[in-house]
Each structure stands twice: as structure tokens, then as C-alpha cells.
From TrEMBL:
<feature type="binding site">
    <location>
        <begin position="267"/>
        <end position="270"/>
    </location>
    <ligand>
        <name>NAD(+)</name>
    </ligand>
</feature>
<keyword id="KW-0560">Oxidoreductase</keyword>
<keyword id="KW-0520">NAD</keyword>
<dbReference type="InterPro" id="IPR007886">
    <property type="entry name" value="AlaDH/PNT_N"/>
</dbReference>
<dbReference type="GO" id="GO:0000286">
    <property type="term" value="F:alanine dehydrogenase activity"/>
</dbReference>
<comment type="similarity">
    <text>Belongs to the AlaDH/PNT family.</text>
</comment>
<dbReference type="InterPro" id="IPR007698">
    <property type="entry name" value="AlaDH/PNT_NAD(H)-bd"/>
</dbReference>
<dbReference type="GO" id="GO:0005886">
    <property type="term" value="C:plasma membrane"/>
</dbReference>
<feature type="binding site">
    <location>
        <position position="198"/>
    </location>
    <ligand>
        <name>NAD(+)</name>
    </ligand>
</feature>
<feature type="domain" description="Alanine dehydrogenase/pyridine nucleotide transhydrogenase NAD(H)-binding">
    <location>
        <begin position="149"/>
        <end position="297"/>
    </location>
</feature>
<dbReference type="InterPro" id="IPR008141">
    <property type="entry name" value="Ala_DH"/>
</dbReference>
<feature type="domain" description="Alanine dehydrogenase/pyridine nucleotide transhydrogenase N-terminal">
    <location>
        <begin position="4"/>
        <end position="137"/>
    </location>
</feature>
<feature type="binding site">
    <location>
        <begin position="298"/>
        <end position="301"/>
    </location>
    <ligand>
        <name>NAD(+)</name>
    </ligand>
</feature>
<feature type="binding site">
    <location>
        <position position="15"/>
    </location>
    <ligand>
        <name>substrate</name>
    </ligand>
</feature>
<feature type="binding site">
    <location>
        <position position="75"/>
    </location>
    <ligand>
        <name>substrate</name>
    </ligand>
</feature>
<feature type="binding site">
    <location>
        <position position="220"/>
    </location>
    <ligand>
        <name>NAD(+)</name>
    </ligand>
</feature>
<dbReference type="GO" id="GO:0000166">
    <property type="term" value="F:nucleotide binding"/>
</dbReference>
Length: 370
């Protein structure tokens, strides 16, 4: 198969879809890999490293899309890329269709085969291609939240871990999945007092067993959230419903319950966000203030640490990418239910229920196209 690795052009997206090591693995199976020049530069990988691994370097993004049967990316195509996508071209990347109706319509109109990292799902309902970036984003949420609690950043002026004789900050984590677990561990490690909420009592039992003493678990519900946000200095939104919009757990009117300078970090913003007042921001302009509450809502947080993120992502995506390249997308999806669940759009149709429901569009069963 012919594989294209374009340079990411979304604002401050520094990751790349495949490392040189990934290219070398593809070459072992006689696949042809084209990499756009400087695609890996921001992640610390030079064109020379890609060439040494067996890739051919192309000058432009247009060439890369034109020649490839499968495009491996990190983030969803942006508007300037829509017309570069060919009918029946396989795109393997994060899409988050439920947060972008224009993207959904564009991919349907282009006739692309869209296999989304975020909905590839194992039998135990875990999301193997979200895990590495969720781990990065969960840890970064605390790193960034701690920074924006500083007074020059319009925060409360609180040191996350406190000092002897002065209490540490209070951190509230909404959601006990991968992001929430990593955020709670990071905050606890820095010495904060942490509350983590989830709707699953089983999950809370597990978290209670593995977390240090400065982390307490509380059942997530409207009443408990309202009480907790009034005390919190840093709030991390870490709720995910695979392939669908995140629920609004904190509404606009609830901001008045928080103290001025409170920081909210919504890691779910690329799925619509679980805090009503959150809207996607960039690393260039990461924050804004509403009702004296600092909002950090960068949609591609792991893009700020691209070397770590790219290595972690390729580790997870490469086995699936090899299956797609070796067998073709139809056979690979027929033989692997995990990949089948990754199909969101194909043949101009929506084949993932959560996406169809998000925009009130027709849905067809994925088996009808395989």
C-alpha cells in the first residue's frame, strides 16, 4: 500500500503521524511510505532520519495526499485540507466528528474512509489509541493548571503543593478514566489535596485502592459537583463518551459558585467539552476568562510535548496501521472488531451511531459497507 504522512497544519500541532521507526516497520512489509518534508521536524525527527528508514520525502502536502492510498495523521483535517482528500482514500487519525459538523459533512462529501483513533475499541471497552494521548493530557492538565494558578496568569496565586505551614491547593477531577487517573496521580504527587469524581462505584473503588492518601473519591452527581467546585482551586474536566459529545457537568450559572481565579482545564474540549463555557483554544492563545474564572481549553494539549507524544502515539497506532496496510481496510475491519469500531464515515455514509446522533444525520450499520 502507498502511505502518506503529511505535515500537521493545525495551529501549534507539532506531532507527526508516524516516527522513522514506524516507517521502517512499514518497509518490512514492502509498503511505500511518502513523508512531507519537515513533517517530523517539530517532534525531533529529521527528513534524513525518515529517508534512512526507507521513506521518500515529498515537498508539498498536495503531493502527499495525491499519491497516498492511506493517510496517517494525528489531528483531523482542517478546512484547507478537505479538497485534497480523494474518494475512497483511507484516513487514519483522530477525528472527533461529534464536535465538528462541518468536518463530518466534508468527509461525507469527499467520499473518504475515515477510521478514527478515538473509537477503536477493545472487547473490555478500553480505547487503545486514546490511552497514550489521554495519559499525556491528564498529566499536562495539572502541569498547565498549576501554571495558570499563578497570579500573573490571573489565577488565585496558589502554589499547588503548598509549603510547610501553608495548605496546598484543592484539585477537583471530574472523571476517573485514563485522563482523570493520570491527572489525580500528578496532582497528588505534587502535594495537592485531590478529589476525583466518577459515576461508576466500581471505578471509584479501584481508584480508592490505588491512589495515595491525599486523593479522595466521591460519587459524581449534580449536588456533589456543585459543592466541590465551590472549594476547588483547579478543576480538570476529564469526561469521555466514546465518539459522542461530552455531557455538560458544569454549566454557565455554576461559575458564580467558584471563587475568582479558579482555573478550569477541560481536557474533553475536543469532544465538545464537559464545562459549558469551554471552547477550543490553541497553544498560542490557551486561556480566556469568564466571570473571573480562568479557562484553559487547548484541544491538542499533547502537541506541546510532541517528542513524547509522537513516540507514545506511534507505539499504539502502528500495529493497527500495519493491519490496514497489509490487508486493506475492508478485510482488516472484517477480521478485527477493534478496527471495525474505528470506522466513522465511509462511502459518504455515517457508520458510527454517536456521530449520527450528534448531528441528527442518517446512520447505517457498518456491516453494510464491508
Amino acid at each position: 500500500m502507498t502511505i502518506g504522512i503529511p505535515k500537521e497544519i493545525k495551529n501549534n500541532e507539532n506531532r507527526v503521524g508516524l516516527t522513522p521507526a514506524g516507517v521502517a516497520e512499514m518497509k518490512k512489509y514492502n509498503h511505500v511510505v511518502y513523508v512531507q518534508t519537515n513533517a517530523g521536524e517539530s517532534s525531533g525527527f529529521s527528513d534524513a532520519e525518515y529517508e534512512e528508514a526507507g521513506a521518500t520525502i515529498l515537498v508539498s502536502i498536495e503531493e502527499t495526499y495525491a499519491i497516498a492510498e492511506m493517510i496517517i495523521k494525528v489531528k483531523e483535517p482542517i478546512e484547507s485540507e478537505y479538497n485534497l482528500i480523494k474518494k475512497d482514500q483511507l484516513l487514519f487519525t483522530y477525528f472527533h466528528f461529534a464536535s465538528s459538523e462541518p468536518l463530518t459533512h466534508a468527509m461525507m462529501e469527499r467520499g473518504a474512509v475515515c477510521l478514527a483513533y478515538e473509537t477503536v475499541e477493545k472487547l473490555d471497552r478500553s480505547l487503545p489509541l486514546l490511552v497514550p494521548m489521554s495519559e499525556v493530557a491528564g498529566r499536562m492538565a495539572i502541569q498547565q493548571g498549576a501554571k495558570y494558578l499563578e497570579k500573573p496568569q490571573k489565577g488565585k496565586g496558589i502554589l499547588l503543593g503548598g509549603v510547610p505551614g501553608v495548605p496546598p491547593a484543592k484539585v477537583l477531577v471530574l472523571g476517573g478514566g485514563i485522563v482523570g487517573t493520570q491527572a489525580a496521580k500528578m496532582a497528588a504527587g505534587l502535594g495537592a489535596r485531590v478529589v476525583i469524581m466518577d459515576v461508576s462505584l466500581q471505578r471509584l473503588r479501584h481508584l480508592s485502592d490505588i491512589m495515595p492518601p491525599n486523593v479522595i473519591t466521591i460519587m459524581s452527581n449534580y449536588y456533589n459537583i456543585r459543592e466541590a467546585i465551590a472549594e476547588a482551586d483547579l478543576i480538570v474536566g476529564a469526561v469521555l463518551i466514546p465518539g459522542a459529545k461530552a455531557p455538560n457537568l458544569i454549566t454557565r450559572d455554576m461559575l458564580k459558585l467558584m471563587r475568582p481565579g479558579t482555573v478550569v482545564v477541560d481536557v474533553a474540549v475536543d469532544q465538545g467539552g464537559c464545562i459549558e463555557t469551554c471552547k477550543p483554544t490553541t497553544h498560542e492563545n490557551p486561556t480566556y476568562i469568564i466571570d473571573d474564572i480562568v479557562h484553559y481549553c487547548v484541544a491538542n494539549m499533547p502537541g506541546a510535548v510532541p517528542y513524547t507524544s509522537t513516540l507514545a502515539l506511534t507505539n499504539a497506532t502502528l500495529p493497527y496501521a500495519l493491519q490496514l496496510a497489509n490487508k486493506g481496510w475492508k478485510k482488516a475491519c472484517l477480521e478485527n472488531d477493534e478496527l471495525k469500531k474505528g470506522l466513522n464515515v465511509a462511502n459518504g455514509k455515517i457508520v458510527y451511531k454517536g456521530v449520527a446522533e450528534a448531528w441528527g444525520l442518517p446512520f447505517i450499520e457498518v456491516n453494510t459497507i464491508l
